[in-house]
Amino acid sequence: MLLILTASISNRLRYIASLMLREMLGIEFGIITSREEFSSYEGPKISYAKEPEPGGLFIESSELLFESNLITQEVFSSTFNGEHVLFQTANPLSSLPFDPFAAAFYLVTRYEEYNSHKKDSFGRYPATESIAWKGNFLEIPVIHRWVEILERLLKKQYPGIKFHYPSYQFVPTIDVDHAWCYRGRTAARTVGGFGRSLMHGHLKEMTEGTCRVSARPV
Q: DSSP letters along 92-155, please?
């Protein structure tokens, strides 16, 4: 089990640690606040705080996962070893120059959308307003890359650590709005549908198929 030492335990930290460690790397973890327990633990461990603790990896934490309100965040994109990163940190002793847990939480929860009043014509948050668009990584699986960085760090520090990766499964689906669109449809019903569309001036629907035509109420 991986032990994580932090100043306080929050639901945000539990959530993102569960996603990145348990679901994506297949490793169990525990979150503690006891420095004594952390010091005596002989397994893999991470100090997720502002200052390092002897033994284990040290990842400097930002404030996001320990806040309880939705606060507008000043987030900037940069790179680390060729990878796009967010929530940069400054402690030179940190194993990483950014906080992967806060960065992943920010993107997974779509945090930036909650305090934004910018909407498109359909009331949706425009992709062009996102940090991913502005940072030029909208189509890059950055959270998976950050998990891989954590994995490499843990393997280097603890060569005997074991991960259990989730298996990949492709399940194709088909979106069918009218399951029995044509089955059992009589010629009279089809012609009637065209007639109603013609009568109401819905000429475009007449070219899109009889399902679209007959679906409109009179």
A: TTSSSSB-HHHHHHHHHTTHHHHT-----TTSPPPGGGSHHHHTT-TTS-HHHHHHHHHHHHHH
